[in-house]
């Protein structure tokens, strides 16, 4: 589950940044830092130890050995398939765990919301250079893109009123992200990602402190 969560982050941002393999993405300082933040900083506090392999060892193996291995070829485009069916399991369950833990604050999450914002930006099918690309197959793709109709790169205000239907859909995320207080944060990130060509890279650098 942990590895899948990291894979999805690499998939959507890899497509936006024009990457053609997961191994190549691991040479990108922002993308590597993003999955480290998602995995170590935000995922680990709510991971249950299955008793087979320690979660910390598992994530370390994925980030430092498996993903960078060029002899295990995989592409962000393939992994991005059916993301609407995966985000609830890969991120929604982590979000639920934060809500259920009195010692954790779900609104403190930054990097999981950044991945969700990246997925929404990905659905526009325009990469960070401003060029169109083909989104991978997804049963909800047409519906999601219809809800984002009129949202365009270079016009952050075009997102106004377009995201609540997606972010509040428990069928996608397992809970209502707007009700949980994450909607405004994610919308703000989407706005940043829409600022213009190069905004995806700039937004990653900003939130990662690079």
Plain-language structure description:
The protein has 210 residues and is an all-alpha fold. It has one domain: N-(1-d-carboxylethyl)-l-norvaline Dehydrogenase, domain 2. Helices cover 55% and strands 0% of the residues. It is built from twelve helices and no strands. It has helices at 2-16, 22-25, 29-43, 55-66, 76-79, 83-100, 111-122, 141-147, 164-167, 170-173, 183-193, 199-208. It is globular, with a radius of gyration of 16 Å.
Largest sheet, if any?
none
Tell me, briefly, the overall form.
Answer: globular
Low-confidence blocks of residues: none
Rg (CA only): 16 Å
H/E element string?
HHHHHHHHHHHH
Helix content: 55-70%
Q: Which CATH class?
A: Mainly Alpha
The CATH architecture name reads Orthogonal Bundle
Strand content: under 5%
Mind telling me the CATH superfamily name? N-(1-d-carboxylethyl)-l-norvaline Dehydrogenase, domain 2
End-to-end Cα distance, whole Å, is 28 Å
Category by helix and strand content: mainly alpha
The total count of strands amounts to 0
Count of folded domains: 1
Total helix count?
12
Mean of residue pLDDT values: 93
Detail the topology: elements first, then pairings.
Blueprint: H1 2-16, H2 22-25, H3 29-43, H4 55-66, H5 76-79, H6 83-100, H7 111-122, H8 141-147, H9 164-167, H10 170-173, H11 183-193, H12 199-208
Helix pairs in contact: 1-3, 1-6, 1-7, 3-12, 7-11
